[in-house]
């Protein structure tokens, strides 16, 4: 049997997104925060807030996926501008 080697991806490159969730205002509002770093290492956040008991999980999931894409596009645009300026 061949031994398996596992190469870990470069730190910070494996998962370009980070996220967090916390309850605010006596547990009546849940806040989601998405984060992504650009090539220069600057952190770009995007925050979403929902009322507990009002927002449905499917709506939150759909909004988070759209927010992730918006954040990705925004950071990619920043990276592209930086590459054009460097060229």
Q: What does this molecule look like?
A:
This protein is of the alpha+beta class. The chain contains 1 helix and 3 strands, in the order E-E-E-H. The longest helix is centred in the C-terminal third of the chain and has 30 residues, at 57-86. It starts with 16 loop residues before the first strand and ends with a helix.
Summarize the structure.
This protein has 87 residues and is of the alpha+beta class.
SS content category = alpha+beta
Order of helices and strands: EEEH
Query: How many β-strand stretches?
Result: 3
Q: What does the overall shape look like?
A: elongated
Instruction: Give the helix tally.
Output: 1
Fraction of residues in β-strands: 25-35%
Biggest β-sheet: count, sense, barrel?
3 strands, antiparallel
End-to-end Cα distance: 49 Å
Helix share of residues?
25-40%
Describe the strand arrangement of the main beta sheet, using strand numbers.
1-2-3
CA-based gyration radius? 18 Å
* Uncertain residue ranges: none
| Average of the residue pLDDT scores | 85
Secondary-structure blueprint:
Elements: E1 17-24, E2 29-37, E3 43-51, H1 57-86
Antiparallel strand pairs: 1-2, 2-3
């Amino acid at each position: 049997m061949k031994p398996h080697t596992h190469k870990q991806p470069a730190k910070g490159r494996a998962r370009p997104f980070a996220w967090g969730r916390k309850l605010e205002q006596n547990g009546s509002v849940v806040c989601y925060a998405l984060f992504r770093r650009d090539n220069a290492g600057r952190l770009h956040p995007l925050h979403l807030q929902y009322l507990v008991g009002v927002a449905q999980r499917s709506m939150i999931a759909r909004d988070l996926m759209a927010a992730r894409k918006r954040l990705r596009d925004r950071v990619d645009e920043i990276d592209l501008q930086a590459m054009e300026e460097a060229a």
